[in-house]
Specification:
By secondary structure, the chain is mainly α. It has ten helices and two strands. The protein has a single domain (16-258), classed as Rhodopsin 7-helix transmembrane proteins (Rhopdopsin 7-helix transmembrane proteins, Up-down Bundle), CATH 1.20.1070.10. It has helices spanning 16-25, 27-50, 57-82, 107-127, 131-153, 158-180, 182-190, 193-216, 227-255, 257-261, and strands at 87-90, 101-104. Keywords: Chromophore, Membrane, Photoreceptor protein, Receptor, Retinal protein, Sensory transduction, Transmembrane, Transmembrane helix.
């Protein structure tokens, strides 16, 4: 519970130690964070071992992006479990928990803003897409995460929370469009279509789960009012969308480095000489 000010106004700021104690006191919540720290650490070690013989420039770039996924996650989840990137926010009028203080894991959005671009970078390199498309999709992805953070932290208006949510979904649509159309065609031309299709399906299905969890969890309609359950839903998605994804990608790249290193067979768009 928040500590009221002497004049009955806004609650006093809760200290980081108090947030940390609250996290550790909730077994469901804390376990969802510690599980990711452990898996991220093991994944990083495994990926270092799996990529030890990768040598071609493009394959090394994919490996580097893949390795960054668990490294970013272990740093971010440590911030969450310590209470550094967690805070209490009071839900606005109109929300199912209006007037109540909810534990906001805003640090998750920092994780996604840094780790999901690495996922897209790895996929883009695998498909051998052009730099302009790669930049555009990664920029849309980062914008998706930032506006998602805004949706989670706005307390002045319940309506504006959903406005930011819809803006975030619009950026997400840009990412989905690229994955389902242009990037798929590029991967086929690059000879990596089969593994790209598998990873694309995994990414699209799992990433669709995040806005669904947001809408149903404590940040949205609060159909699920347990912060611990909401946290486990996000953590479960992270485990599959990051570590399983990265393992499948790196295993294929290590076994098919010749295909990855080969130039794309896509037709050139440059004008022919007269």
């Amino acid at each position: 519970m928040a500590v009221a000010t002497p004049n009955g106004g806004l609650p006093l700021q809760v200290t980081q130690s108090e947030v940390f104690s609250r996290i550790q006191g909730d077994v469901l919540l804390s376990s969802s964070l510690w599980a990711n720290i452990a898996l991220a650490g093991l994944s990083a070690l495994l990926f270092v071992y799996m990529g030890r013989r990768v040598s071609s420039p493009r394959a090394k770039l994919i490996w580097g992006a893949t390795l960054m996924i668990p490294l970013v996650s272990i740093s971010s989840y440590t911030g969450l479990v310590s209470g550094l990137t967690v805070g209490l926010i009071e839900m606005p009028a109109g929300h199912a928990l209006a007037g109540e203080e909810v534990l906001s894991q805003w640090g998750r959005y920092l994780t996604w803003a840094l780790s999901t671009p690495m996922i897209l970078l790895a996929l883009g390199l695998l498909a051998d897409v052009d730099e302009g498309s790669l930049f555009t999709v990664i920029a849309a992805d980062i914008a998706m995460c930032i506006t998602g953070l805004a949706a989670a932290l706005v307390t002045s208006s319940y309506l504006l929370r959903w406005v930011f949510y819809l803006i975030s979904c619009a950026f997400f649509a840009v990412v989905l469009y690229a994955l389902l159309t242009e990037w798929a065609s590029a991967a086929t031309a690059a000879g990596t279509g089969e593994i790209f299709d598998t990873l694309r399906a995994l990414t699209v299905v799992l990433w669709l789960g995040y806005p669904i969890v947001w809408a149903l969890g404590v940040e949205g309609f609060a159909v699920i009012q347990s912060v611990g359950l909401t946290s486990w839903a996000y953590s479960g998605l992270d485990i599959l969308a990051k570590y399983v994804f990265a393992f499948l990608l790196l295993r294929w790249v290590a076994a098919n480095e010749g295909t990855v290193a080969a130039p794309s067979t896509a037709p050139s768009t440059a004008p022919a000489d007269d």
